[in-house]
Specification:
alpha+beta, 22% helix, four-stranded antiparallel beta sheet
Length: 54
């Protein structure tokens, strides 16, 4: 699953940040600025967001 995080009319597809959920890992970022997370790291990130730590 790939989710593009653009707001309103500011979408420029190559520059929009994305969350790309793959079978073995998750990619988060933009074209030249990508972070690759393991599923364990992604779960930690989600929990921190839900707990308002980020």
């Amino acid at each position: 699953m790939k989710v593009v995080l653009c707001t309103d009319d500011t979408c420029i597809p190559p520059k929009c940040p994305v969350v790309d959920v793959r079978e073995d890992f998750v990619l988060i970022g933009e074209k030249d600025n990508i972070c690759r997370l393991t599923w364990e790291q992604f779960e930690i990130l989600k929990q921190k967001i839900r707990n308002n730590e980020l």
